[in-house]
Write a structure and sequence with these properties.
single chain, four-stranded mixed beta sheet, three-stranded antiparallel beta sheet
Length: 416
């Protein structure tokens, strides 16, 4: 099996195909701290792509409540269990020369330790029908005292972690650099678009074997019974490429991103090197958050797919749980988010100010507007300006740290 470089694991790994990378890769950052589970993203996707017969239980975009929720039910707990059974006690990260390296087995490597057919290239499982029936199962169900069913902790709530907690995890297809669905398909019906790395299924080639459904650890490939083929999130590629009638030729963010009320999503395109790493692009907001500010982390990087979906972890959740989900960079990410630099604070203002894809930004310093202490640390806040630019360098918008305040005239004080 060929070797490919996985920068998220900080090592090479096995993958059924040689590495092939687009010039620009579809990627996104979700800020979990802002998600309110309004499901507007879910319904925006549903009403656009999956409203037909046979798609009733297809939710390409969904928001689930962790630690108990999941669609399909318990998807992550099941694949983590399979990986642990294949490599008992060794699914660990090790720090070497100041960098963390994953020493365990990915879903492409662990398959060799399972007694499965030779045609199986990826460790996975096929969810049963009932697991797809409840996309909102265990919504708002919190984690309380360990070992005490239905008992919440009676102590007060305070940071750094809450003893009774839950959080919302918004999910779409991660359009991975090493897709498990692509690796598993015996028909070679799945491919990555060379222009943006969006992962698509050729409907003419697909025969509904469901190998992709079994292989995808995030369970974002979904079988449609009435057509007997598989479908998945298409990354709203007409919007991304600027051919959607609404876009007027300008690259736009996906429907789920643009509809987000909580302002917790940003989608963009990052430049790629020919070894699968991200090309240094300091002015790209996604590159900045992932590689410079180090506040955004991949979802379950240990699976080995090199997902292009990144998350700013929730600051109130026990760190052990978050490290299992986002890797060993959790402590640094939360610290950087809770005590942001001036530039990071400015970049966070870019979220949902426009439905156009931001290709680069500029940061302009402004006057000091606040001085004090927060959580025992000295804090200075400046009314800096951040300017967003599109693909051709045209300014999309500019915004400041301090939002303007408008006071209603007394004449209309009680009006609605």
């Amino acid at each position: 099996m060929p070797k490919v470089k996985n920068w998220q694991l900080n090592r090479e790994m096995d993958y059924p195909y040689e590495g092939a990378y687009p010039d620009r890769q579809f990627a996104f950052v979700f800020n979990i701290n802002r998600c309110i589970a309004c499901q507007t993203c879910t319904m925006a996707c549903k009403s656009t792509w999956t409203f037909s017969k046979g798609q009733e239980q297809m939710w390409w975009a969904n928001v689930e409540t962790k630690p108990y929720g999941g669609y399909p039910q318990f998807w992550d707990a099941k694949i983590l269990k399979l990986l642990e059974e294949a490599n008992p006690g060794k699914q660990n990260w090790r720090k070497r020369n100041g960098k963390y390296r994953f020493e365990g087995k990915t879903i492409f490597e662990a398959i060799k330790r399972r007694l499965l057919p030779n045609s199986s290239r990826v460790l996975g499982y096929l969810p049963e029908d009932h697991e797809w029936n409840s996309p909102n199962i265990y919504e708002d169900n919190p984690q309380g005292k360990l070992g005490k069913v239905n008992e919440l902790d009676k102590e007060g709530v305070e940071l750094p972690t809450h003893k009774t907690w839950f959080f919302y995890l918004a999910r779409i297809c991660n359009h991975c650099s090493y897709p498990a669905c692509l690796a598993a398909c015996p028909r070679e019906a799945i491919y990555k678009r060379p222009e943006d790395g969006i992962v698509l299924i050729d409907q003419e080639k697909c025969r509904g074997y469901r190998k992709c459904v079994e292989a995808c650890p995030y369970k974002k490939a979904m079988y449609r019974g009435n057509t007997r083929i598989t479908e998945k999130c298409v990354g709203c590629y007409p919007r991304v490429e600027g051919t959607d009638p609404e876009s007027e030729g300008i690259p736009m963010e996906t429907r789920c991103m643009a509809a987000c009320i909580g302002q917790m999503r940003m989608q963009g395109l990052v430049k790629m090197n020919n070894d699968g790493t991200w090309m240094k692009d300091r002015s790209n907001p996604l590159y900045y958050m992932v590689h410079e500010a180090k506040v955004a982390l991949p979802l379950y990087p240990q699976f080995g797919t090199s997902p292009n979906g990144f998350y700013i972890p929730p600051r109130w959740v026990p760190r052990k749980y978050l490290k299992q989900m986002f890797g060993p960079g959790v402590d640094q990410a939360i610290e950087n988010y809770m005590n942001p630099s001036r530039e990071l604070l400015a970049v966070l203002q870019l979220f949902r100010r426009s439905n156009r894809i931001i290709f680069s930004y500029e940061f302009e310093k402004g006057p000091k507007i606040y001085e004090g202490t927060i959580r025992g640390k000295a804090v200075n806040i400046y009314n800096d300006t951040v300017i967003a630019y599109g693909k051709d360098g045209t300014e999309l918008f500019r915004t400041t740290i301090e939002e303007p305040i408008y006071e209603r005239s007394r004449k209309y004080a009680n009006s609605i």
